[in-house]
Amino acid sequence: MSDATFTHLDQYGQARMVDVTAKQPTVREATASGMVACPPSVVAALRDGSVPKGDVLAVARIAGIAAAKRTPELLPLAHVIGVHGVTVDVEVVDGGVEISATVRTADRTGVEMEALTAVSVAALAVVDMVKGLDKSVEIAHVRLIAKSGGKSGDWRRE
Question: Are residues 140 and 48 in contact, defined by beta-carbon separation less than 8 angstroms?
Answer without folding.
Answer: no
